[in-house]
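[job 0417] fold request received: Solute carrier organic anion transporter family member
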Amino acid sequence: MEKHNVNDFEEPGENLKHKIEDEDDAEKLLCGYGACTPRWLQGFHNAKCLLLVLGICAFIQSFVVNAIFPVGLSTLERRFKMTSTHTGIISSWYDFAVLLVVFPVCHWGNNGHKGRWIGWGGVIMALGSLICALPHWMVDIYHPDGNSLANQTDFGQCTNRDDPECAGKPHSSWFNPYFWMFILGQTLHGVGSTPLFSIGTTYMDENVSQKASPVYLAIHAVLTSFGPVIGVFAGGFLLNLYDDFDRVDTIPMERSDPRWVGAWWVGFIISSISALMIAFPILAFARELPEAKRHRAKDVNQCHAANGDVNAKAPRDLTKLPACVWKILSNPTFLVCIFVGIFESIIINGFAAFMPKILETLLSTNPTLASYLSSVVIFAAATGVMVGGTIIRQLKLQVGGMLKMIVVCHVIALIFTTGLLSHCPQREFVGINLGYEDLSIEKSHDFSISSRCNSECHCKMEWNPVCDRNTGHMYYSACHAGCTGMTKNQGSTEWSGCGCLTSNSTFHNLIHGIKEHPEVLNQGYCHQDCGYREYILMVTLFVTVVASFASGIPTQQIMLRVVPFDQRTLALGVNWTFVRLLGFIPGGILFGVIIDTACLEWGESCGKATSCLVYDPFKLSWTITGLAIVCKLLSILATIIGYMTYRPSDLDNAGKGAWRRNAPSKPSTVIVILLFISLLTTIAFPNKPSYMPVTVTCDNFFPPKMI
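[job 0417] inference complete; emitting structure tokens
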């Protein structure tokens, strides 16, 4: 009698059952709004369209958070009398808002409809941009002299005038209402973008194949990086428009005037409308795409041995959440990714928030040109993420190979970071870093913009620098230069009868052997010739950013691969919590404080400091370079440790790139690493004069806000 396997008879029934379930699921996976699911709309229900709408949403988020806001930092400080510490806190508050909601979003969003979470997040983000633009209509029309009813005969010259009275409390304090308006706007920006960059990553990853995931995520990152690229050009263009062009008939000053305030608020309005428009297509996508299960069946298990159960589920019960989080944190490779993210996020968030301001200081240029130069850095970021994704796909790197790639990228970035030390010479301001007798002021001594030549001028503390084009020296204002006359010549303002100019030029001519001195001063800054330094700084910065961002995609891929499939959203939430708390939040504040410590001259209003007027590029470059080097060294060390401790659960598929672990070699390897770091630290930070800034240590990175 012929024997048959019982399973042979049961298999068709089981297949039929699964087929029916798949058909039922397919009926539910329709694109639309509720019962409105037209057939023509299903043609857009695929991974490419999902990538497009998520990319556009990320583009808008990075456009406003990583471009419009940073480009306008100097303008906001001048317009609302805030310091860099204030604007640094506003920038970091975005990350603080993310930190507050990332766990609830990851927990409930992972079990819910990811598309709807992301779509409603876009609506909240639109509201945040609108609130950031509201201070434009809340504040009075901008008047550079602070008094719209000023005497028309007083145009800032040296003359007898009464001391100005303080009509009200200056806003450069923690009670500044506009400061809190920006805090509220950034809070909504952070809350609205959290679903996009937490569950949005897994939403994309789970709907494409494991092989295609690096390319899809890299393209998503490139679309995200286009936001700052377009944003810096748009922001630079908008800063050429006068702030109150919608409320005044005539522009009261020239665009070259250092007191110029551009239309910073228009970018927020554009972002608000765009975010609201893109939210609706995202809300139309189903819980998952029809082909998602087919891709998932072909995935390779690359989980770390500590989380080897690829089928482990994320807990729905909140009481079981701490145990699941602890198990994820017991994964050493995932923990290393968190540490690398922390170390790098300080640098990335600081530079993302203050890049235009840093370039403005180091290259002695204006905010508009600095915003255009920042676009070079953003192009480098886009290049980096594409290079990272392409290398992973072409070389078919798995976790072990991706860890090697991260080490190589950070070593390259470390070498080229030192290019930040190449900066333009310090601008020479009489009374700030140059004496009225043409002698440089020692950094350890106090300075004064008052002198015998302007003692009878009764000058107001209003920043309106003028330039001596013959010597390259600048004065705090025409009044502080002792000027009595003003004329308009071919669109530029010239000052004559300057008593301090005659006095200062006498000493300058004696020292430099010049027989004649100029008779006029010109409004605005003097042109600063940086020579080759500008090209060295921009080229090395470009390479540094490419290398740093090329490591972002493998870091992201490792985090998605070394934890169970259903726990990836929770794992990303854990990563974002630590990275935001220990990296992004202190990073923006730390850079704001560093920039403030490099200030040479503060503006004053009613006896209180407002925003910084003149920075020391030498001190600023050394401080941020030291900070970047320390963070890069810590990132390299953490990645090497992760490389040594990675133990895949599926050695046939994921272990091809793993290191051979010989126990006796581990201590010697660690010793070599520590000696290497000690040597680099000694080279990077030799003994310097007493006036050099103290290097600030750090501990933080993640692929930036834009990833």
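[job 0417] notes: The first strand starts at residue 428 and ends at 429. The radius of gyration is 29 Å.
[job 0417] exit 0
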